[in-house]
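Hey, weird one. I pasted the Adenine phosphoribosyltransferase sequence into the form twice and got a warning about non-standard characters only the second time. First submission, copied straight from the form history:
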Amino acid sequence: MQNDLHDLVRRAIRSVPDWPKPGVTFRDITPVLQDPRAFRVLIDLFVYRYMRQRLDLVAGIDARGFIVGSVLAYELNLGFVPVRKQGKLPSRTVSESYVLEYGNATVEMHADAVRTGQRVLLVDDLIATGGTMLAGIKLLQRLGANVVEAAAVIDLPELGGSRAIAATGTPLYTVCQFGGETEDAPAA
């Protein structure tokens, strides 16, 4: 049953070839969000995983991590912390730069977003090279948080991000993966 639910979400993910540049296949969760059943199953998979864990906050990475993370925080009765792209937060921030699969970027958090010792779940839509998730982990840890787990809808293991996250000692959970021995699913 659990695998059927993961497959339902995976089948709803759209693959967009050659975007944002030639040779890159973008994995788009928008169809998951548009399909009430797939969206509910996705959130329920996360809720069931975390409902018995002792967590204080959910942090979501700009921008699709905001969607999944904020709904998950609501369902778990937790606060939500945004990890934003540089220059988007109005108060004092801490920042972390990183390398993307196809460029460089910086993310920021408000300097008072978490308190020392808080147990935080970090959420994004996708793990590729892991740069964004690793930057989020570093920001949370710099502010004194304990990152209980990193979570994403999609893992692209061939790009090495999940290995890089594992190397930090941070547990990682993903709903589905694309690439490697796994066949690409058609868009739903």
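That's the output from the first submission. The warning seems to come from a hidden character in my clipboard, not from the data itself. The two ends are 20 Å apart (CA to CA).
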